[in-house]
Amino acid sequence: MGVIQRQGIKHSIVNFVGLLIGTASTLFIYSQAEAIEAYGLVQYLLGIAMIGYPVFALSGNTIAFRFFPKFQDKTKQHHGFSALLLLFCLLGWGVLAGIALLLWETILGLIDQDSPLLKDYLWVAFPLTFFYTLSQVLGVYSANFKRIVIPSILNDFALKIFLPVQLVAVWQGWISLPTALWLLLLHFFLVTLGLIYYLHRLGEWTWRINWSILTPTLRQDMLRYASFGIVSSLAFLIATKSDTVMVGSLIDIKKTAVYAIALNIAAAIDIPTKSLYTVSASFVARYLEDENWTEMRDLYRKVSINLLTAGLLLFGCIWVSARDLYALMPNTAEVSQGLYVLFFMCIAKLVDMASGLNNQLVYFSRHYRFSILSLGILAVANVAFNLWLIPIYGLNGAAISTLISVACYNVFNLFLVYRKMNMQPFSWQTLLVVGLAVGVMTAVWWVPSTGYLLLNIGLRSGLFALGFGGLVLYFRVSADLNQLWEKALQQLKKAAA
What we know:
- The protein has 497 residues and is mainly α.
- It has 2 domains: 2-426, no CATH class; 429-497, no CATH class.
- It has helices at 2-30, 36-56, 60-66, 68-71, 81-102, 104-109, 116-121, 125-142, 149-171, 177-202, 216-250, 253-266, 270-290, 293-319, 322-328, 332-335, 339-354, 358-363, 370-393, 395-421, 428-445, 453-474, 479-496.
- α14 packs parallel to α21.
- It is globular.
């Protein structure tokens, strides 16, 4: 876990700083009445890019990991694998963009009449999805070289800085909404160029593809896996990410912003997940390729307990202070409608974290075809649940739909991994850490209000973090976390000496 720990910690630090910026933006900018509609529009457009990403990339995001060992050769610039991934993106995006243009009037007709802003600016989705797809695939490709920090800064952190600055400019009337959208496109264009330059500096980039390495067998394998990747990734994203788009389509853009604000707060829980999943992917692919089941089983359990522990720590800190967080926002009456959206989305993320690497184990193994049927059913079910629950429960209905989809999907993959590979990620520590979190959270609920929102947040979240963190270390829930704590204490002692 050495490389995984180092890169994971660096990645988490970057994301936690981004979290601070995102939290401040959510509390004081995105919830402003003058900015909330523009924020909803941007989130809707980004939602389209996220959902369509696997198809736009022709599954380049999964091929980048799954087939890199076949192309890996530093002396031959990995046979132009980076350029081949870009070619996948160009082909996938080009085909879908052409189809969308042909059906443009039909697409506009599906949008609710109460969303004229969306009809006026839906065209932005074309260039936005193109640059978003390129930047995401390049970020995934970088992880093959255990490089996830700089790509994360460019892909995620930079947007957390750019977006609030942009919306402040719209809110204050310094720029118009069309100008803001053009600047958004420029941002993703520069991110893409930055990632290409970064890979070039690492010596891991080439524009020349070695076509001779693409034997008929390899081409067939890649085509088969790409077909699987497109269907499975698209189905997974529809099952877990379509809520934002459907809220905008079935309700209105302002409600999309309220929903997105709750997602922004819940995103804090995702920080350890992104770090460990990204840096673990290449290890999973290698262990499966080598059939190294001992190392794979050990990694599976370690990632699961580490993610669940980190997720419960963050969830507890958020939920014990959730009402005070919403009360701090300028447009409290409107944005607080997302309170239970926040709860359901946090639980969905915890379910995913507790399941560990089960999804990657299925994707990168020879059993990957088994998940296509389940993902297709889940995608259809999630859309159906949204169509059913959103009109009844509004924003909460969309969040409940996502929770159901994520839970069912992970249960299926857990069962598949156990049956096919005889592995499961849970242990007695899993139940222990959940019990500790519930117990400490219950105790903190009894802490009386001070009458000051910021003091309430600091007091309740701080008490939960200290109580839960102390108990986790005392009961040695995770050997990795205890090891990190002991190293930190040693560094403090050296600094004090």
